[in-house]
Amino acid sequence: MTVHRYGYTLADAERIGAAIGAALQPGDVVALEGDLGAGKTTLARAMLKARGLAGEAPSPTFAIVQPYAPPEVDLAIAHVDLYRIEDESELIELGLDDYLVDGALLIEWPERLGTGGWPDTLTLTISGSGDARVLTASLPPAWEARWPLR
Ligand SMILES: Nc1ncnc2c1ncn2[C@@H]1O[C@H](COP(=O)(O)OP(=O)(O)O)[C@@H](O)[C@H]1O
Ligand SMILES: [Mg+2]
C-alpha cells in the first residue's frame, strides 16, 4: 500500500479527477472518504466527465446508486453515495458487486460498507476545507503501476 498526498484547489480537482477517471478499468472500486462538503462528489464528477459524461453528474445522495453505461460513458460506472445507509443489511439489495463485472464503482461514504468492501480498493481521502484541501490516495497493489499522478 503506497500513500500519496496532494494539496489541491477546486481547479486542480478537475485535473486530478480526470487523470484518475481515465485510468479506471472494469472491476475497480474507488472509495471517496471525507466529511460532508469535503469534495467527494466534485472528484467523482471529474472522473465521469473524463469517461465521456456530458453535463454535470447529479449527486447520488438520494438515488444512492446512479449507474452510467455506454454510450454516455466509455466505461460503465456506478456512482454511489452510502450516506443514507444505516445498516449493513441494506447494502445487499444495492447489488454493488454486479457493477464490477464490466464496470467500476465510485463510492462516497465507504465507511458505511462496514465489514463489507473489496480488497483492492483505491481509497481517496479528502480533508481540509475552503481552498486548503488535501487529497490522500492509498494505492492497493493493483493501482501502483497505473497511478496517473506524481
Ligand atoms: N479542492 C477544492 N477546493 C475548494 N473547493 C472545493 C474543492 N473541492 C470541492 N470544493 C467545493 O466544496 C463543495 C462541496 O463539494 P462536494 O464535492 O459536493 O462535497 P462532498 O461530496 O464531499 O459532500 C462544493 O461547493 C465544491 O465546489
Ligand atoms: Mg457528495
Automatic annotation (TrEMBL):
Cell compartment(s), UniProt: Cytoplasm
UniProt cross-references to InterPro entries, sorted A to Z: P-loop_NTPase, T6A_TsaE
Highest taxon listed in the record's lineage: Bacteria
Gene Ontology annotations for the cellular component aspect, listed alphabetically: cytoplasm
GO biological process: tRNA threonylcarbamoyladenosine modification
Keyword Cytoplasm: yes
UniProt-recorded Gene Ontology molecular function terms: ATP binding; metal ion binding
Family in the record: Belongs to the TsaE family.
Protein name: tRNA threonylcarbamoyladenosine biosynthesis protein TsaE
Organism encoding this protein: Sphingopyxis macrogoltabida (Sphingomonas macrogoltabidus)
